[in-house]
Amino acid sequence: MAENYRKPTLDKDLDKLATMEEATGLINRGFVTPGLALVFIVLCAIIAGVFVTGQPGAVTIIAAAMIGAYMALNIGANDVANNVGPAVGSQAMTLGMALAIAAVFESAGALIAGGDVVDTISKGIIDPAAVSDPSIFVAAMMAALVAAAMWIHLATFIGAPVSTTHSIVGGVMGAGIAAAGVDAVSWSTMGSIAASWVISPFMGGIIAALCLAFIKAAIIYKDDKIAAARRWVPVLIAIMASAFAAYLSIKGLKTLVEISLGQAALIGLATGILSWIIARPVIARQARGLENRNQSLRKLFGLPLICSAALLSFAHGANDVANAVGPLAAIVHTAEYGDVASNVTIPLWVMAVGAAGISLGLILFGPKLIRMVGNQITKLNPMRAYCVALSAAVTVILASWLGLPVSSTHIAVGAVFGVGFFREWYTENSARRADYVARHQINPPSRTTANGKIAEQRRRKLVRRAHFLQIIAAWVVTVPAAAVLSGVLFVVLRAVLI
Q1: Among the residues of 248-347, which ranges form H helices?
Q2: % pLDDT > 90, the chain
Q3: Which of 306, 309, 373, 443 lies in the 20 to 30 Å Cα band around 387?
Q4: 3-state helix/strand/coil string of 391-405
Q5: H helix or E strand, kind and range, residue 497
């Protein structure tokens, strides 16, 4: 009897305590990532203090280092998702693998090819002569950094991938207007940037859709899919390798060695031929014994997607780290030497702040945007994700050749949209698909339910319209929102610092 004796009240109290402990653990887990981010920002301030203590403007430089670290964290949280999101969404790699690959290659790109010289006025957006007073210039750059970081933080919170370049451009423009009036802004440059809002996603979407159309026609809707894959997948891998070699030559390695567009094309061609020679036996071996179905094809695109995620991350680190450290380097130079320079050399510790911040921001806060880009806008498989990755590289090369300003964020997300909208159109209008489905009796509709299934198919959309409209709205308001916020912050900082 003693063994069966229970105290119901005690059991209930213990259950309540266990529930409270579990709830407390969940709440505390939500504070871990912001806490680690705060520790990183403080650590960057300490590192900056080690290098600048005793120098003129040390306090200003330390404050700017904290702001630059915050900006770098937000770049990692938002912008890097475009590089690895499609590969994660297609299940070509796990989220953990994507975070590790992106963190390593983002840091490598930033430190190896991040650039020794950065235009501190962000690509000629404002006239340096208009903000020649060092104190005004420092306040303007600080306001631009804070405003851009806050806007990217908000965009990440609501789940909208935005262009960090456009954010810092808007911040610089707003601070420049508040400091020196509208005449200080180069409106022709701003017009080019505004044009990229349309050019980037449109080009990315079109190229991705054309790539997917080719894969469907040449491989997916062939009677012998595996034989078609053995013939065409090595060619597709070669095209991707060629595009990425040229892309890295133009974008990722431009600060290490000067490469013309023609030289980049030759590098890409040579890389493509070599990749095709290597890929043919590899794909033939992988394709041996595969079943003649679409699911089997996905295995052949896994490795190219992993490589593309790494290469995109390297190029992104090489280019977009300047969005965090460019204004920071300008502040450091101005505070130390008391003059405003158009170009400044970035100290190694400043570059390290940007590289580490982007990687840490990705690991702590990146998964949300990775899932958004990877599988919440539209469903991606390895073939569709391949089209997105190829589009990102090809679009940048075409834009460089045509002299058009583009955003890597808008290209990648536009490519995801392009794949989804193309699938909607293709499902309803492709005679090739209809013939293939009819011959292979895939999901044959019964007489009694045919009309209902057609109606259901028309109602079903492969691109989530809510995400589409939310992202487009965020793109449109990025520059003006960052500009307004930066202008307000500049007025506050000028009152405090000057």
Answers
A1: 261-287, 294-297, 302-337
A2: 25
A3: 443
A4: HHHHHHHHHHHHCCC
A5: helix 465-497
Report the largest interatomic distance among the alpha carbons of the chain, rounded to a whole angstrom.
92
Amino acid 464 reads: R
Q: Please count the other Cβ atoms lying within 10 Å of the Cβ belonging to residue 399.
A: 20
Query: What's at 373, amino acid-wise?
Result: V
DSSP string across 57-116: THHHHHHHHHHHHHHHHHHHHHTTHHHHHHHHHTTSS-HHHHHHHHHHHHHHHHHHHS-S
pLDDT digits (tens, 9 = 90+) for 200-258: 899 999 999 999 999 999 999 888 999 999 999 999 999 989 988 887 787 656 666 77
Q: Which of 83, 88, 157, 159 is nearest to 411 (CA)?
A: 83
Is the entire prediction scored with pTM above 0.85? no
Residue 358 near residue 72, CB atoms below 8 Å:
yes
Q: Can you say whether the dihedral through the CA atoms of 324, 329, 330, 336 is positive or negative?
A: positive
Say if CB 76 and CB 321 are below 8 A apart. Answer: no
Q: Judge whether residue 320 has pLDDT over 70.
A: yes
For 327-350, write each residue's pLDDT tens digit: 888 888 788 777 776 566 677 888
Geometric angle at alpha carbon 100, from 99 and 106, rounded to 5°: 85
